[in-house]
UniProtKB/TrEMBL annotation:
One Pfam family it belongs to: p450
Swiss-Prot/TrEMBL keywords: Heme, Iron, Membrane, Metal-binding, Monooxygenase, Oxidoreductase, Signal, Transmembrane, Transmembrane helix
Topology in the lipid bilayer: Single-pass membrane protein
SUPFAM superfamilies in the record: Cytochrome P450
Protein name: Cytochrome P450
Domain of life: Eukaryota
Signal peptide bounds: 1-19
InterPro entries: Cyt_P450 (IPR001128), Cyt_P450_CS (IPR017972), Cyt_P450_E_grp-I (IPR002401), Cyt_P450_sf (IPR036396)
Location(s), subcellular: Membrane
Protein family membership: Belongs to the cytochrome P450 family.
Amino acid sequence: MNTLLSVFVFLVPIFLLLTKRISSSKKLPPGSLGIPIIGQSLSLLQNMRGYKNIGPISKMCLFGKPTVFLYGQAANKFAFASDSSILANSQTESVKTILDHKRVRDALMSFLKPESLKQYVGKMDLEVRLHIDEYWQCKKEVTVLPLMKTLTFNIICTLLFGIERGARRDKLVDLFQEMIAGMWSIPINLPFTRYTRSIHSSKSVRNMLKDLIGEKGKELQEMGSNPHQDLITCMLSSRNPNDVEEISEEEIVDNSMLVMTAGHDTSAVVLTFLIRLLAKILLIALRYWVAEQEEIAKGKHRGESLIWEDITKMKYTWRVAMETMRMFPPIFGGFSQAVKDIENDGYIIPKLWQIFWVTSMTQMDDGIFREPQKFDPARFENPSSIPPYCYIPFGGGPRICPGSEFAKIETLVTIHYLVTQFTWKLSSDDCFSRDPMPASTKGLPIQIAPKKQMF
């Protein structure tokens, strides 16, 4: 207790210095900075309570920094359409320390462009089938959320990093889970905190990736590997020894960790809610979803893999997924930093202040989506009818997520095999909260049976 008090006393003057520079003539957004350093961080981490009751712009303190909270269509556009002279990409101190990322967007876009993604459907198909054989077949009950996290991590290891199944992958997943657990924690570096354990795990993950980069680089040099066999090889292939700004090993590690983090929990959460919906909501709409997948399965020979053309037929299934992401968004928002003093909605956002934008709040706005609590995939029959920057689960404008199509294929391939091979029902009611991803109290346990077998 004395140690915590000492840390608090030490940090308070630093916080006051950060906020003292603001002159009284500036009109700051309404709200309170709360307790120095801690501010509203704890209430944010406790299931995202209270944010529906504040205005579209307000000030607060999050994770040790003075912060302006924004939501609404204009806020979404501001967050995603502003250039680097106004907003800088930012994260909480815990995320920055743990990831410390720099984007090498060109390499990511090359690896994740549609022409390249067509080549990955078969690999993804195989990974999903192996997962089902190992964790679903001959089972009477499974717990969905941890299984979906296992699956998405295995897909990342196979397609993005080329890490084969075995001891290395098993060790990596354990370290990764501990790293993720502390990424949104209050940045107090003491031995017993989640934040400190996360930092140690992050360092171990980085070292494992550096070893992998060395191996991939040697393969590329000696054997001329296919540049698109995995993301690390793609980034190594884009290096030019005559270029003084070539991609460094550290940048490859940073981007690998960024992709690993961004692509893991998000897809797992979407898949979990899709499975939950099919068990809980008995709608004709969901029958259309199942029928679409069964029609695709009828056109395949036994054991034949899905191909790109099959994915393009899953239009209704993707509308179901989009509506699921609208109602249960995996990502609620993110952070930027003001490069200079910014005027927004009549208020000043001071230079260097953190900006916390919550994109998902527009998705439950009844002024944008009629009856937002109602599950209705038909909303997405004509996506152009939705006002710009009101539904952006993958970001928007120049800051759209380069992995959005990868996540789409991953979701569609997985749900195809689950829907066509199994029926299921909930084992018990399951509550979800945010930590900061939607987290299930029980992991969503379900009873399963092979298709055509009745409960």
